[in-house]
Specification:
The chain has 180 residues and is α/β, with parallel strands linked by helices. The protein has four helices and ten strands; from the N terminus they run αβαβαβαβββββββ. The model has no long low-confidence stretch (mean pLDDT 90).
């Protein structure tokens, strides 16, 4: 099934958006209830990168919700910590969030392992991390498309871009090694 193409006629959410909302509901113990029926609980703190679809509006009404985008200039200004963040170097205190959601962004994070460490740093001890990425289970190892060991990116393959406007560089294509 095409995870992007099947859109809800009521809210315009894609299959991926609905799957993420469903998993959030499971983590928060709301069962299979639709998001609009979840109880409001502003003590639940959620960080999400590149939130899309209709559910972010509902999450903002129900939770202490940070929907952030990556914009180096805005991050450097430091004026909008609820709107902009770099998952490789988060500007939040340790153990801040109950839940972190990263939907199809980690293939674009230059140093993904730094991002994973930062997420686990800002998660509360019983917190959860929900992540989606393009993934090929038949591939044993992740394909590294860009060498990031130095200051500058070194392309090991033809550059690949995703996202709105097709301007977001893909650093890797995940394989089964992601699971470990």
């Amino acid at each position: 099934m095409d995870r992007e193409g099947t859109m809800c006629r009521n809210c315009s959410a894609t299959s991926r958006h609905r799957a993420v909302a469903y998993v959030v509901g499971q983590v928060l113990k709301h069962g299979s209830l639709p998001v609009f029926q979840w109880p409001k609980n502003k003590s639940v703190k959620i960080l999400e990168s590149s939130a899309r679809g209709s559910y972010p509006v509902m999450f903002a009404e129900k939770f202490d919700y940070y929907a952030v985008e990556y914009d180096p200039a805005k991050i450097a200004e430091g004026k909008h910590p609820r709107e902009y963040a770099d998952f490789q170097k988060l500007h939040y205190a340790d153990a801040t969030f109950d839940l972190v959601v990263a939907s199809d962004i980690f293939e674009h994070v230059r140093k993904d392992e730094d991002g994973y460490r930062e997420i686990f740093r800002v998660l509360k001890p019983e917190g959860s991390f929900i992540m989606t990425v393009p993934y090929d289970h038949s591939r044993p190892n992740t394909i590294i498309r860009v060498d990031t060991s130095g200051e500058k990116d070194v392309h090991l393959m033809e550059p690949e871009y995703h996202g709105g406007g097709v301007h977001t560089l893909t650093y890797r294509n995940y394989g089964r090694d992601l699971l470990s």
